[in-house]
Amino acid sequence: MTGQSRTLSTIRGDGDRRSSRGSHFANRFYQIGISMCVALGLVGAPRAYAEGPEPDLSGVTLTVGTPNKTGLHRQLLASHEADNTPYKIQWADFDSTPPLVEALRAGHVDIAAGGDTGVLFAIAAGVKISILGAAVERNKSGSAILVRGDSPIQTVAELKGKKIALPYFTKQHYQLARALEQSGVPWDQKLILRLNTTDGLSALINGQVDAFVVWDPNTAIAETQHGARILKPLSEIIDTAGILYAPASSLQDPKRVAALKDLTRRVIRAQGWVNVHPAEWSEQVAALAQISIEAARLQASRSSTIYAPATSADIVAGWQKEIEFFVATGDFRKSYQIGDYVAAEFAGVVADEASRVAKTE
After folding, report:
1. What is the DSSP string of 310-328?
2. I need a labelling partner for 303 at 20 to 30 A (CA). Which of 139, 180, 232, 233 fits?
3. Which phi-psi region, left, alpha or beta, contains residue 153 (left: φ > 0; alpha: ψ -120 to 50)?
4. How far apart are CA 290 and CA 11, in angstroms?
């Protein structure tokens, strides 16, 4: 059966050569995750997860949530991995992770991928989420603190007393908090303004704020079209793994689980396609996301993501450390164990498909 796909909703769809440092940690995450799955017998014969005849998924519809211009929606289309699915696909695009997880909470999103911080905040707030996999960036990415091209600010320490635009409860929220902490700059909510990506860029351009914290392709757009300058690449401060996730309720339905496992494989293959086709990906994302080809090429040149099992000890430890950070700051009322929210049954699926993709890179 040929899968059908259509757009459910579009809500300000803004977005996220390998560095040796990023590659080292990414490969460590990946190798540990794969090794664990081999030891558990989760990696082996092709498609070893089907038991008995494949279920009829023609009545299943999965809504794919994307918190940026270059995420799952565009990757699945550009790579053609959204073609010929045995279930239907709908698309729901958002400006960032917080509104996406609210839609997921309301039952309007079935699977999504993005930065971890928004997901960790959502779980802390009671949203029932299951983590299917981890996305590890091997390059420096475009996550950054931006200033205007003519700004005299040269260091993070010089942001003390300055106004900063930030999309709160995103991965960049955590990265900025750690960057300010390392530079001895106090977190001041009166100066760190909660603005979405569109309003944040506008505020920077118009001189209403001194700095803007954001991710690609927004960073690339700001650089190529508005003369912004990267003050600090935030992956140099800390870079935890992103998260592929779904509503916990979806894992109670065998047919939805089967569809999600198939789509998880497609997501991993789509990311692999993006990694090895930077020129074609740039052209595709420029057209699909309606951004300039210059911005598309810049964001493609500094991102190379791989998927790894969410059961990896190093990955889980990174997420847990982040949880404890926000408990200490008072943003989370209490701690929780992130491992309790990992869908272990997807570890083998992710490890198997990631190992296949790795052979093509």
Report:
1. TT-HHHHHHHHHHHHHHHH
2. 180
3. beta
4. 14
Q: What tokens does 103 get?
A: 């839609």
pTM: 0.85
Q: Are 289 and 13 in contact (CB under 8 A)?
A: yes
Domains of the chain, with CATH numbers?
Answer: 5-140+240-358 (3.40.190.10), 144-236 (3.40.190.10)
Q: Is the pLDDT of residue 74 over 80?
A: yes
- Residue 160 CB-half CA count within 13 A: 9
CA 91 to chain centre: 16
Contact 240, 116 (CB under 8 A): yes
107-131: average pLDDT: 97
Mean pLDDT of 281-306: 95
Tokens of 275: 């990694």
Tokens 């106004």 sit on residue: 163
Structure tokens at 303: 């991102």
Work out the angle at residue 141's Cα, subtended by the Cα atoms of residues 137 and 144, and round it to the nearest 5 degrees: 130
Name residue 100's amino acid.
Answer: L
